[in-house]
Amino acid sequence: MTRIASLSLLTALVLSLAAPRASAQATPAEDAPTATATDETAPGSDTQLSDEQALLEEQTTVERRDDGIDPHEEENRDYFFVGALARALVLPSYPFEVGGVAFPNGYDVPVNGAVGAYFNYRRNGFNIQVEVFYQGMGWNGFLRGENDPIGETEYIESNLGVVYGWFGFSWSIPIADWFAIEIGLGLGVGGVVGDLYRTEAIDAAGSGSNWMPCPGPDGATGDRCETPIEMPGSNGRLDNTRQRGGTYQHITGANPFYFGEGGVPPIFATIDLPRVSFRFKPIRQIQIRVDTAFNGYGFSFGGSVGYGF
Predict the structure, then answer these.
(1) How far apart are CA 16 and CA 78, in angstroms?
(2) Does the residue 286 lie in any domain?
(3) Where does the record locate the signal sequence feature (predicted)?
(4) CATH number for the domain harbouring residue 82
(5) Each residue of 62-119: pLDDT tens digit?
(6) Residue 255, CA distances (Å) to 2, 8, 236, 252 in order
(7) Domain containing residue 301
(8) Number of domains within the chain
(9) What φ, ψ does residue 206 adopt, rounded to 5°?
(10) In sequence order, what are the beta bridge partners of 8?
């Protein structure tokens, strides 16, 4: 074989060996798109980033719910409120009529106000409330006691009031986070303050109607404007040990305080059963109540505003 033929054969052999290598080297290039597709699901990809963002947004939403003013009340958590209250007390005639008191000129239903402050503790919907308030007990009118003769009719002017300490318990019926109905009861005991005056009364022409206060003792009126012989006994009481007669306390002084016939009781109690309240909480720190109660001798209506801490 000549030198040229040997070179030609050697060249052909080198080319035949080089061809498969080129083909093998081309495979990774052809597979490049596959690697790119795989990278889409690799850690740090757009898909996983979207999932992390969704989780982060969900956690952020939960945290925003408790923004410090949300009125929602959680279980097993204590809530405290202090505030001011105002109410009106309506005194119908029937509790007195049951006791035998007559109102010969009719009965004007008195409405007296009350103002005060309160402290409220609540947990799991159960309320304990303490109140201190002044309750007016004013009333003007004519009355006659049970079994008293018609000549014992008197004109009463009451400027009394009671300073109460009151304790109450109630249970909440939640309707919404911001609204609940509370049903409960309460007991209050207080000291009586103010003055009450009794004045002998006279009716027009002895008709038994159209009564008016006596301007003073007048013997010509019989037992209507009697002489003021109804004086306190040695114990200071206007009871059955004294001789009956006219009463003119604008002259002799206000009615004395004591327990018993003719006296003003120095201590007075009230029982609210039931008390129903409608509670509004626009935000966590503010509590507004509208309430009503029956207390045995009258009805109260009112409301309160409190601050929570």
Answers:
(1) 90
(2) yes
(3) 1-24
(4) 2.40.160.20
(5) 444 567 899 999 999 999 999 999 999 999 988 888 778 889 888 999 999 999 999 9
(6) 156, 147, 10, 9
(7) 78-200+253-308
(8) 1
(9) 65, 30
(10) none
